[in-house]
Design brief:
The structure is a homodimer. Chain A has ten helices and 23 strands. With about 350 residues, chain A is α+β, with helices and mostly antiparallel strands. In chain A, strand 10 and strand 11 (about 150-160) form a beta hairpin. In chain A, helix 2 (about 35-40) packs antiparallel against helix 3. The two termini of chain A are about 35 Å apart. At the A-B interface, helix 3, helix 4 and helix 10 of A face helix 3, helix 4 and helix 10 of B.
Chain lengths: ~350, ~350
């Protein structure tokens, strides 16, 4: 047994042509261990080793020893088959055919990556199949198996972010306090808030967050002083902002990229993410719901599946799309959404 | 100026008796910096330093230099006053009086802890005011100020967890596979699943998670072998479980405590927490919604406010209570819920 189970010619007609199990070969039908376990559990095949029949328990224990991750793949394979999909082994784990399609008739719709809830998932290991699937015009399905063998399905894909806001308005002189910035001039405060949804009005003043202040300073829309009325340039301010928030540069690079793309970017704190993002905000009287939650991460980030699950679930519960942003020469965006196959 | 602003006798009648600002002293009324900034912004008082009047901007910048966290406390004080509450300084940051009550008439209802979104919050620094508030029969209000000066309010309190499940049923012989356990006997599988909601049925078999297996093994309801059919005792199994999940002991101690309290405990993976917990599950035909999401943490855990915010928001969006569990001789439970004051 070398991780494949071989059946005779008669199986091609019985199992492949009826249900697209296995791959026809010169001398018969070849099954993966997962396919064989599935058919053995249904008494569709018998498996013998060295002349003796193996029952399901013996076969399953052996397969679990032979292949790392066998149990997870079995759970996912079984689930997808029982939902009526044709499934074939393939990179990264499976290929799934669209409803009404099958191997030999139509191309696969999904590539499937099987993930254990307990296995940390490096962002780079996710990006690779996302890009591959994109190039092949497939969708990438993530099948995350939890400790009770329940499966949650997600789709992961690259996302183009774009909004339709105009250039920002000029502001004026602002002061950096302990860890936020106050713009004191009432007219400039009103202008910046109403055209671009910058800051939070406090009385007639405007409180600006650190990323907002850095952006407006970089675009020369505000000038900045500290509490001793000494002028601060962008470099001074960035140095101070890094002291307050250790990942400020990462966060700011994403904030700037999204603003440069014409989007409105506000804190996502209430949703536990870095930003909530609007394609457009036309007036402060009618602020729409934000379309996206965006969380920033370094390129070497490692996802923990429960944290990923929580972020996506929360975004959907407030009808937003969950987008992860990471630097890679330029800023790139990865959307992850729940699938119900 | 030593972090207090002193007003004359006439202010007692004007500010204290009309609005419960400040504390009457022998020679007049004493205000905290936060109270003074609030009244100065409304032109209710004038503040002079060394004979010269300070405008709001000058006073605010000075107060922000004198007191760490002044800006956060100002934002929270202003918000609560504008909602019509009487607020006094006090441990940890403020005391808030119930609607219709005021200082001198009724006791405070809430102790308020002001937290910046950016400041990591050690669990122990949260437990201390929670206990203090509990002893004084107050509620503890957390006011978390985000980078845009929006405030999210929470209540934190100790929680007594209890359910009403009976003793579990005996199981039988199970096998530890790669990282989960399978009970092969159909009758025992049915019994354990239907009386106690253990495991997940796969065909007529039952898959048990690691914590379920450890608990049933400890209670001598199952016996366990590995894939080579060698018997595993509880210590063998715990050693293997720790290899698979580095925080297994912590998670298991909470699982066992909740099960011992008569509750039903299942994975909370879909909600991004360790467990979802039911007070009672009477039959598999009518599984109710779970009442709690429980996340375990070591006693030296440090909360990040955005993570806390996400957990509570997600729990409420699925109508569950968010409970954090940590060891402290015995397992203790901390409920955090959103407040809308």
């Amino acid at each position: 047994m070398d991780n494949r189970v071989l059946l005779g010619q008669e199986a091609v007609a019985d199992l492949y042509e009826q249900g697209y199990f296995g791959r026809p070969r010169e001398l018969g039908l070849e099954l993966s261990l997962v396919e064989a376990a599935y058919l053995l559990d249904r008494s569709r095949i018998k498996v013998s080793l060295n002349g003796a029949d193996l029952d399901f328990q013996a076969f399953f224990q052996m397969a679990s020893s032979l292949e790392i991750g066998f149990e997870f793949r079995y759970v996912v394979y079984k689930d997808l088959r029982e939902r009526g999909y044709y499934v074939q082994p393939g990179r990264p784990d499976f290929r799934v055919y669209p409803r009404g399609g099958h191997p030999g008739k139509s191309p696969a719709e999904f590539y499937v990556l099987v993930i254990s809830e307990r296995m940390p998932l490096p962002l780079q290991e996710l990006i690779e199949p996302v890009r591959l699937a994109g190039q092949m015009r497939k969708k990438l399905m993530l099948a995350i198996v939890d400790e009770e063998s329940d499966i949650t399905f997600y789709e992961a894909k690259e996302k183009a972010m774009a909004g339709s806001m105009d250039e920002q308005e000029p502001g004026g002189m602002a002061t950096l306090l302990e860890d936020r910035v106050v713009l004191w001039d009432p007219l400039a405060s009103k202008r910046l808030h109403e055209h671009g949804f910058y800051g939070k009005p406090v009385g007639e003043r405007l409180q600006l967050s650190l990323v907002e202040s850095a952006y407006l300073l970089e675009k020369k829309q505000i000038q900045l002083v500290n509490r001793a009325s000494e002028a601060l340039d962008l470099q001074d301010f960035l140095a101070r902002a890094r002291q307050i928030e250790s990942d400020f540069d990462l966060k700011y690079s994403v904030y700037r990229d999204l603003r440069d793309r014409g989007m409105v970017v506000k804190t996502g704190f209430k949703f536990g993410t870095h930003f909530r993002v609007y394609k457009q905000v036309q007036s402060m009287e009618k602020v729409p719901h934000s379309e996206y939650l965006v969380h920033t991460m370094p390129a070497d980030h490692i996802f923990l599946p429960p944290v990923l699950s929580r972020a996506v679930r929360l975004a959907h519960s407030v009808r937003k799309q969950m987008v992860f942003a990471y630097p890679d020469k330029e800023v790139r965006y990865l959307e992850i959404r729940r699938l119900k196959p």
